[in-house]
Amino acid sequence: MVTGKTCTMYCVEREILDEQRLEELSRRLDSSQTHTLFSHRLKNSLRCSIPKLKRTVVGFLPVLYWLPHYSVWDYGMPDLISGISVGIMHLPQGMAYALLASLPPVFGLYSSFYPALVYFFFGSSRHISIGTFTILSIMVGSVTERLAPDENFLIVNKTSGIEEVDITARDLYRVQVAAATTVLGGSIQVILGLMQFGFVGTYLSEPLVRAYTSAAAAHAVLAQLKTIFGVSPARFSGPLSMVYTLVDVCGLLPNTHLPTLVVSVLSIVILITAKELNNRCRKKLQVPIPVELIVIVVGTLISFYAHLNETYEISVVGKIPSGIQPPTMPNASIFPEVVVDAFALAIVGYAISVSLGKTFALKHGYKIDSSQELVALGLSNAVGGFFQCYSVCASMSRSLIQETTGGLYCTSLLLVTMMKLGSLFQELPKAVLAAIVFVNLKGMFKQYTDIVTLWRRNKIDLVVWLVTWVSTLLLNLDMGLAASISFAMLTVIFRTQSPRYSVLGHLPGTELYLDLESHREVKEVPGITIFRSSATIYFANAELYLEALKEKSGLDITKMITYKRRQEAKQRKRDRRAARRAKRQDTLSRDLERISLGSLGKWTWDIHSIILDLSTANFIDTVALKTLRNIFHDFGEIDVDIYIAGCQAPVVEQLEQGGFFSDITKERLFTTVHDAVLYCINLRGDGTLPNYDIKVVGFTVLTCPHNYME
Q1: Is the Cβ–Cβ distance between 369 and 50 less than 8 Å?
Q2: What is the pTM of this model?
Q3: Rounded Cα–Cα distance for residues 221 and 629 (Å)
Q4: Among 61, 180, 80, which residue's Cα sits nearest to residue 123?
Q5: What region does 509 belong to: left with phi over 0, alpha with psi -120 to 50, or beta?
Q6: Which terminus in the chain has less CB density within 10 A, N or C?
Q7: Cα(652)–Cα(646) distance, integer angstroms
Q8: Where does the sequence pass through the membrane (predicted)?
Q9: Sheet holding 501-506: strands in order across?
Q10: What angle do CA 185, 189, 108 make, to 5 degrees?
Q11: Beta bridge partners of 643
Q12: Lowest-confidence range among 257-271, 306-320, 557-571?
């Protein structure tokens, strides 16, 4: 050991390790010894014991883990405050978001109650608030309006003789559509969760989700414009429906209902002002001011007074039935028409919920089970669908308030509201609910700043964001999501198809090999080309890998081998002619010299070895294996040795299973690039590495940083 001024330096003496020698030293087990047979895994999974049964039950019902340790004295009052606060938020948001789903407001209350109660028992997150959410409400609304448009429920008024919409029949069928979609989506979530498919949410990248929610917020705003202005635009569905709706709404602006517009504007101003005060005073306030509930109560009182005095007409919520509705079977005939929408709702809802759950879990120092969250959310939706709820997920605004487990108290408040207080909100103006939706979307519009951030950080993520946003706006939520995910997957393929190829050089004084083009102090190793790809090699980029290797090494193998074979053919013809002449003269020499490109004088090069750094590869398919075999064969024809370095253990196993080592020995495969370089120097060089104090004696290598040799 040598100690310098700034660090401690070590001299390491060891032998050069190729794969064959490494297996001898480490006594690597065969793949059959490391991989458990399926029959054994199945047998172990079916084996039952008391501790395993307890873990399984507690894992499926997380409430059994924390409820026995729950202290009412320590947590009762804070949880009561939290539950009441979240419940107060559920009331206006549930009714408001039901309008987004094109359903009567009372079904928003149902959707805030039943799923939250189910999640209380099965959810593994202690802080998220399950209930109605803007994005899912819009997605459900697109399904209900597509399958139950107004024109399907037109009837003739017997008094006036004018066609009008049978609102009762329309809403009844829309509730059936929403319930069937919710049950199917929840079932999909449960099945995926039981199959441990909790990772599916990872395919929705953050830029994609944020762009999708931003575009969905634009759909939500457009859906509320008719209520805010008091107009009745035509219903459109399919691609570009948002454009058609916007044009129609703008054309109807001269017919704006002024009382409705006044109520909407006043509600929006009051909500924005009060929410800003809540944000500025949140450190001083133990509980946020329930401004939404206050606006609803005041709006209901004003509407009731105006209705009594017949001063003006304004659209109100209407009849809200009291009590709990009995469970009903969903209409199974609707399932085939909504299966794609149900799958989209299942994935989007899970992605939003699990991302919020992981955020709170990290903040409070515990872990959530992604697959169990999928099961819990699926059961919440599936059970809720039988009680005429629509799809739900976690809400950021409510979850921020529910920093403790106040779920039980929250559902209790909602139960009281549905049982006794629901009828009090029958005169509530729909314009107030539209204003609540409009103001709550403010946070999603702030996401447009992502464009500037992604422009600076990652252009490909920016393209994903923009494509997702445009496709969701123009193609609607269902087809927009499918197009967005497809494009995001294409970017992954594009990145692996066009990786960065680089030639590595040696950093003096270390065992590191870095990109020559990116580092000034890195030196090229004479006679050796070290080639690296930033992505794994597989069928989509194997040919590009070979072309890049030819370009970086400066050796056009195809032309060189073609030229060599032509010269060999000419040489054989000359040899045959010479043999015939020699036979006549009986002076033919039997020792014919082997043709080499160097002896032909066509090309000259200084490379005697190429090292392929495969440390970035995490798998090898048959196409890549064939490409590597061709590289060994083709470069061998021009007397350039090929070596592989840095393979991970699974890659070595795949090479073995593919028969790669049937004609290529494991002595060509080294554990590190440095081992391969030292081997090449010993075999083909002069035994020294420039700018590096090194001595090669057989297979024993003594390495020390420059100027530190003793």
Answers
A1: no
A2: 0.75
A3: 59
A4: 61
A5: left
A6: C
A7: 10
A8: 97-122, 177-199, 258-277, 289-308, 342-362, 462-494
A9: 513-515, 501-506, 528-533, 609-613, 641-645, 669-670
A10: 50
A11: 611
A12: 306-320
Q: What is the pLDDT of residue 410?
A: 65
Q: Which residue has the higher pLDDT, 582 or 176?
A: 176
pLDDT of amino acid 587: 47
> Checking DSSP bridges between strand 501-506 and strand 513-515, what pairing results, if any?
antiparallel
Contact, 645 vs 675, CB < 8 A? yes
CA distance 19 to 406: 58
> In which residue are the tokens 């149900």 written?
342
Q: Count other Cβ atoms within 10 Å, centred on residue 589.
A: 8
Number of helical (H) and strand (E) elements in the chain, helices listed first? 27, 15
Smallest Cα–Cα separation from 554: which of 484, 624, 608, 605?
605
CB of 61 closer than 8 Å to CB of 121: yes
- Return d(Cα 459, Cα 461) in angstroms, integer: 5
Q: Which two tokens stand for residue 381?
A: 């939706």
Collapse the DSSP code of 485 into the 3-class scheme (helix H, G, I; strand E, B; otherwise coil) and give the result.
helix
**Rounded Cα–Cα distance for residues 633 and 630 (Å):** 5
Is residue 694 within a helix (H) or strand (E), and if so which, with residue range? strand 693-697
Check: CB of residue 522 under 8 Å from CB of residue 503. no
- Rounded Cα gap, residues 206 and 355, in angstroms: 10
Average pLDDT, the chain: 80
Cα(672)–Cα(393) distance, integer angstroms: 49
Beta strands 641-645 and 609-613, pairing class: parallel
What is the Cα–Cα distance from 493 to 472, expressed in whole angstroms? 22
End-to-end CA, the chain: 9
CA 663 to chain centre: 42
Are the beta carbons of 171 and 150 closer than 8 angstroms?
no
Handedness of CA 349, 353, 358, 363 (dihedral sign): positive
Closest CA to 510 of 671, 674, 647: 674
- Whole-number Cα distances in Å, 372 to 59, 63, 261, 379: 8, 12, 46, 10
- Type of residue at 636: G
641-645 and 669-670 strand pairing: parallel
- What is the spatial distance between Cα 11 and Cα 17, in angstroms, rounded to a whole number? 17
Work out whether the CA dihedral 6, 7, 8, 13 comes out positive or negative.
negative
Residue 306: its H or E element: helix 291-309
Residue among 423, 418, 416 at smallest CA distance from 108: 418
Query: Among the residues of 365-449, which ranges form H helices?
Result: 370-386, 396-401, 407-416, 430-440, 442-445
Residues 405 and 79: beta-carbon distance below 8 Å:
yes
Burial string for 245-261 (b: 16+ CB within 10 Å, else e) reads beebbeebeeeebebbe
Cα–Cα–Cα angle for 413, 417, 421, nearest 5°? 145
Copy the structure tokens of residue 368: 């959530």
Q: How far is CA 167 from the centre of its chain?
A: 40
Q: Which amino acid is at 366?
A: Y
CA 595/CA 588 separation, integer angstroms: 18
Which of residues 83 and 331 earns the better pLDDT score? 331
What confidence category does residue 456 fall into, taking pLDDT thresholds of 50, 70 and 90?
very high
User: 41-50, 425-434, 594-603, 604-613 — which is least confidently predicted?
Assistant: 594-603
Among candidate residues 277, 275, 255, 273, the one with its CA nearest the CA of residue 265: 273
